[in-house]
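Weekly structure sync, notes
Attendees: PL (lead), two postdocs, one rotation student
Agenda item 3: pending single-chain targets
PL asked that the sequence for the first pending target be pasted directly into the notes so everyone works from the same version. It is reproduced below exactly as submitted, 154 residues in total.
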Amino acid sequence: MRYNQVKDLVDWAAGFHARMAGQYSEAASKAENERLQMAFNYLAGRELKMKTGLENLFHDGSDHSEVLEIWFDDSSDFPQPPELDRMAEQTVTGSIDDAMRTAASAHQRLQALYEYRASRAKIEPEEEFFNALAQGHNSEIRHIMASMEELQGV
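Predicted structure, written out during the meeting:
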């Protein structure tokens, strides 16, 4: 479908985080060592936190309704959703470094998607909304990388 509302994109992103959490949980159950299992469980938890945060936008009592109801033209000029959908369907395996790269890539692509939507915003609250989501992913990338590096050093 070409035309969507912001709430559809937020709902899709929450679903993406849920699918990634499932991938990480499955990888944890198949991990060859305890440290790798801990890394995948950590990533699954972070993804569930991101999912819950997005879902809370619908119920948090703040006035996001103006932005969530905005329609936008979803032409095929931004590639992140299909790339992210493919990423969520791939089996996550490998080392802690591989897990870090997968997590960073996912969050960087989501950040790029939000930045793109901010650049195409029709009203200032929409731009602020997507910029805040993009900044959240930038912070999340730094947090995950620091935590995963700490885990590697354990």
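Discussion points:
- The CA atoms of residues 56 and 62 lie 10 Å apart.
- The two ends are 47 Å apart (CA to CA).
Action: rotation student to compare against the earlier draft before next sync.
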